[in-house]
Amino acid sequence: METPENTPQIVPSVAELEAQERRLVLPRFTHEDAWALGSLLVELARERQAPVAVDIHRAGQQLFHAALPGSTPDNDAWIARKRRVVERYGSASYLVGARFRAKGTTFEDSSRLDPDVYAAHGGSFPITVEGVGVIGAVTVSGLPQLQDHALVVEALERFLERP
Questions:
Q1: What SUPFAM superfamilies does this protein map onto (predicted)?
Q2: From the CB of residue 119, how many other CB atoms can be counted at a distance below 10 Å?
Q3: CA distance 142 to 147
Q4: Is 46 a member of any domain?
């Protein structure tokens, strides 16, 4: 019998991950938008009792941070490492790792970057503004990497649906 803990997850392809990035482009991103997106992520995480930390950075400035029950200081370290991947590559941390895996290698083995500084694990997604490009990152840490990634994607989808 399958339970939520052992249900196989469908791993998105590189093409599917790239399509997410093309779709999840914002018309603008203000301090108020950071608060609204961060609050939405916290609300989704609370509904699921997810022990996560949430972070939003824009142009090197932290605009939002929350640590939910069960999260630890280690989650903040993971957030920083995943966010640096987005800042360096301009793509979601999960997508960067998936691109390396698609080439038959790993980010850790082939990127030549310090794994104590960079982590191509799911959970950090670029904040992309129409006509501007990547201006920051929204990051979640505390769940398995695919779930971290999916939570951020769900929040961005809902955020874009707002009036």
A1: GlcG-like
A2: 26
A3: 9
A4: yes
